[in-house]
Specification:
It catalyses: Hydrolysis of terminal non-reducing alpha-L-arabinofuranoside residues in alpha-L-arabinosides. The chain is 17% helix and 32% strand. The chain is α/β, with parallel strands linked by helices. It has three domains: 124 residues, Golgi alpha-mannosidase II (Immunoglobulin-like, Sandwich), CATH 2.60.40.1180; 345 residues, TIM Barrel (Alpha-Beta Barrel), CATH 3.20.20; 134 residues, Jelly Rolls (Sandwich). The strands form five sheets. Strands 1, 2, 26, 27, 28, 29, 30, 31, 32 and 33 form a ten-stranded mixed sheet that branches. Strands 4, 5, 6, 7, 8, 9, 10, 11, 12 and 13 form a ten-stranded antiparallel sheet that branches. An eight-stranded parallel sheet has the order 3-14-17-18-19-20-21-22. α8 links the parallel β20 and β21. The N terminus is likely disordered.
Length: 659
């Protein structure tokens, strides 16, 4: 298929040995500071889409552990020659446990072999098993008298046990108890299963059947998948936006995200259907739910772990306008506003406050130091502005220091955007959240988008962006180098205008290769492996090299935003005492670019160039995770001049130390 590209970026890919062409010199005035760069400049956006949380970041291996899916035994298989009708039942205690009413009752007689009575869970697209790793099992149970033992097994794809343990429920009576045990796997398996086979006679009630790998992030019991968190920590993001985009709104208001239901004891958190369960007809996901084992406390904790500012987004009384467009009447908006106020208290309040005490009871008496919050996600229209005004008044009266992010809708232009953007700026909003899901051509041609914005007005949060490139007609959008290169070019414009754009994040973040519904995505996982896309490395390079101040960089006395297929920005890092220059060569020809640096400081004799380049169609994969990734090389600095060899279709970062 012929790839359409910018006229300046020819369709064919020439050899990297092509003769470099000289162009006009680029002049960097390292003493002319044009903007301060916020520590929050480059962050990440998380949403539970593509099995991002359950089956992904949240390391629980058992699907439907509390039997609360719409189909109570979805994910489970009950078999055995000694199981008769009525021996295994799903019961509902209703009012006694409204958030987690269902449980399983097993009633057996003389079970003494693995084939007599088994309960098998398929996991989230299978269970990833690692050789030598311990797996921690827990269960809530109730039994009138002792009688049944539970043999625990991890099974490979052929049903062979590759790890086993045993749990003998120790307590009896009418109350519920929790018991734990663990065992070690003896081989690697990509798509295994978990099985319990019962031994003995008796009756037992089971709930919250859970299995976690021991190697969670920071080895926290019931915690997060370590390799996924590590990929975020490696980026050193300035913020994490959570819990997402459209799941904040829900298909209808009953399906919206309610943060208060995601904190406290795990067994008391109410599971709901994930709104992506029914959204994509081409990728049905009837087993997609939110257990909220990854709730607001865990989001705040993860942000603290990786040194990122928390950025929660809350429902503003509006359901998804593409689905139901359901609204809360203005005179009934009070509980929604109170949720926002209470969240600040939960995050920042003293342990003597109502919600601060709840945080402390969960193990974090110190405040999380929340500084900002989003009101609504991609909502639009006058109905949004009406509700936003009520939220803003209440929040600014009680917590004036909290910065509020305002939605500008779904698109970066058009009547919908203009209505919101103009209103927000008239009202002096703290942040306007702009989203761009567009073609690579759009990103290349909009590198100068913010050059004309008011630098003293409301700040921009580029909350969701990704270049969408189809692999084939009507095929999925893929994370190839063409898309990432376009993003790299666009981000030079964001960095150049750091006085306007204070925050930016790619979206979506994670996708499971066997459970994705939306693409492209920055990081891909299966049950045991992970890799970053070319987009990931572009975002990471910007985040790790954000600097402290923007400096002036021009060619022919103009900002560099596409002339001769060149894009550029420059910063200094006052902490590291270096100049950092970012340049994109979006053409199919190599360029020998002369850089002339004006500075009162002396420069080091050598500099480091970090670069990425490849065929426009190149992608990373589980088998070639770093095919498109950065490489470093050293170049000479001659006085105040550097000649930078820009390969075709390349993103380059030059680090020049000051003496």
């Amino acid at each position: 298929m012929r790839i359409k590209f910018l006229a300046a970026c020819c369709a064919s890919v020439l050899s990297l040995n092509a003769v470099a062409q000289k162009s006009q010199p680029v002049v960097i005035n390292a003493d002319k500071l044009t903007a301060k760069i916020q520590p929050t400049m480059w962050g990440v956006f998380f949403e539970d889409i593509n099995l991002g949380a359950d089956g992904g970041l949240y390391a629980e291996l058992i699907k439907n552990r509390s039997f609360e899916f719409t189909t109570p035994l979805m994910g489970w298989a009950v078999k055995g020659k000694k199981i008769n009708e009525g021996d295994v039942l799903v019961l509902n205690r209703q009012e006694a446990a409204e958030n987690n009413p269902r449980y399983l009752r097993v009633n057996l007689k003389d079970a003494d072999a693995p084939t007599d009575a088994t309960l098998t869970n398929e996991g989230f697209r299978g269970i990833g098993i690692k050789k030598g790793l311990r797996y921690n099992f827990s269960v809530m149970y109730r039994q009138a008298s002792k009688g049944l033992k539970m043999h625990l097994q991890l099974l490979d794809e052929n049903g062979k046990a590759v790890g086993s343990g045993m749990l003998n429920p120790e307590q009896s009576g009418t109350t519920w108890h929790k018991q734990t045990t663990g065992f070690t796997a003896n081989t690697d398996v990509k798509k295994g299963k978990f099985q319990i086979w019962f031994e003995g006679s008796g009756s037992i009630d089971l709930d919250m059947i859970s299995l976690f790998p021991a190697d969670t992030w920071k080895q926290r019991p019931g915690g997060l998948r370590a390799d996924m968190v590590q990929m975020l920590a490696d980026m050193k993001p300035g913020f994490v936006r959570f819990p997402g985009g459209c799941i904040v709104e829900g298909r209808d208001l009953a399906n919206r995200y309610q943060w208060k239901k995601t904190i406290g004891p795990i067994e008391e958190r109410e599971l709901i259907m994930n709104r992506w369960n029914t959204e994509f007809k081409h990728k049905p996901a009837p087993d997609y739910f939110q257990s909220f084992g990854l709730g607001f406390f865990e989001y705040f904790q993860m942000c603290e772990d990786i040194g990122a500012e928390p950025l929660p987004i809350l429902n503003c009384g509006m359901a998804c306008q593409f689905n139901t467009a359901e609204l809360v009447p203005l005179d009934q908006l009070g509980p929604y506003v109170q949720d926002a106020l209470d969240l600040v208290e939960f995050a920042n309040g003293p342990i003597t406050s109502t919600w601060g005490k709840k945080r402390a009871d969960m193990g974090h008496p110190a405040p999380f130091n929340l500084k900002m919050m989003g009101i609504g996600n991609e909502n639009w229209g006058p109905q949004y502005l009406e509700r936003l005004a009520i939220f803003t008044k209440a929040m600014k009266e009680k917590y004036p220091a909290i910065k509020l992010i305002n939605s500008s809708g779904t698109d970066p232009d058009g009547a919908r955007f203009d209505l919101l953007n103009n209103a927000h700026r008239k009202n002096k909003a703290d942040f306007v959240d702009e989203h761009y899901y567009r073609s690579p051509e759009w990103f290349f041609s909009n590198a100068a988008r913010y050059d004309s914005y008011d630098k003293n007005g409301s700040k921009v949060f580029a909350g969701e962006y990704a270049a969408h490139t189809k692999n084939e007609p009507n095929g999925p959008n893929i994370n190839n180098w063409r898309a990432a290169l376009a993003e790299a070019a666009f981000l030079t414009g964001l960095e150049r205008n750091a006085s306007v754009v204070n925050m930016a994040s790619y979206a979506p973040l994670f996708a499971h290769t066997d459970g994705w519904q939306w693409s492209p995505d920055m990081i891909w996982v299966d049950n045991t492996s992970i890799y970053g896309t070319p987009d990931y490395y572009v975002q990471k390079l910007y985040s790790l090299n954000k600097g402290t101040n923007v400096v002036d960089i021009k060619q022919a006395n103009k900002v560099i935003a596409g002339q001769d297929s060149l894009y550029a920005s420059a910063v200094i890092d006052q902490n590291k005492n270096e100049l950092i220059i970012k340049m994109v060569n979006a053409s199919n020809k190599a360029k020998a670019q002369n850089l002339q640096i004006k500075s009162g400081k002396k420069l080091g004799a050598t500099a480091i160039v970090t670069s990425m380049s490849n065929d426009l169609k190149a992608v990373n994969s589980f088998d070639a995770a770093t095919k498109v990734s950065p490489v470093d090389e050293r170049v000479n600095v001659k006085g105040k001049t550097v000649t930078l060899e820009l390969k075709p279709y390349s993103f380059n970062i030059l680090h020049i130390p000051f003496k």
